[in-house]
Please model this.
Amino acid sequence: MATLQDRLGRSMQDLRISVTDRCNFRCVYCMPKEVFGPSFAFLPRRELLTFEEIARVAKIFAELGVRKIRLTGGEPLVRKDIDTLVQELASIPGIDDLAMTTNGSLLTAERAQKLRSAGLKRVTVSLDSLDDAKFRALNDVGFPVARVLEAIHNAAQAGLTPVKVNMVVKRGANDEDILVMAEHFRGTGHILRFIEYMDVGTANGWRLDDVVQNSKILEQINARWPLEPVAPARPSDVARRFRYTDGAGEIGLIASVSQPFCRDCSRARLSPDGQLFLCLFAQKGYDLRHWLRSGASDDEIEEVVRHIWSGRDVRYSEVRSEKTSGMPKVEMFRIGG
Model:
């Protein structure tokens, strides 16, 4: 079967599935409490895709060339019996990598082992600071650093490795913690990744002045512990990899703002209610739930997806401007990071 490509020649290889729009954190750069307070209306259960529907979509995408699936949210572990979905997805022919991004709050030792037994291969845990007061302020629900570190340990013990740790860097919020984070995770076998603060959605008050460019982060770490570049595993990988020359492991840099990677983007994104998005910064999605619930066959849905992807020409980060940055965009908690 010929590789499915979009208008810019980009193959569809990765599917990010947001299993819920709910999250138990209120991170200031994603779901600020003043917008997503107690009265905010999340999706009702009937509008969420069932596990069976998600697995059906995943099988269709695997037929079209997807080899990697990442479960996201919201916080995916708030979705009840998520290991059941993991087991279904892990059994799909052609899926080589099944991972999850989580804030770690619900990743107990027992749950980590259950997910690993179900077929999950890796986890990425979000942690923006090791300073407890600062981290509690960033997640805005008072969740402590110690419990996230415990979750990282639980993941490693269960074999969900290598564990990746994502740090979103925002100027004035946690940019003073870069070296502290790097020092803590050096030599642990975990991969710390620094992510530029992005203008995802419209609720986080994003400003370009709040972005700490990855080049500055690299300079800072390299001056303390020399680094050398590592070739990407795949051309579509978003993180630039660097390893410590003293053998203490590696870091990743994700620079969507200062060094866009649109030209190699291979990601499709499925929202909890079955909307297919073609970009993290998309303004609209395509309703696959309608086709799933209207009696359409797998072949018919596959043709719909082919048509959508083959017409894809988005490259938001490459054309980011004051005009495009101000456009309404889907919020990150609906389609994952």
About this structure: The CA atoms of residues 193 and 332 lie 18 Å apart. The chain has one domain: 14-335.
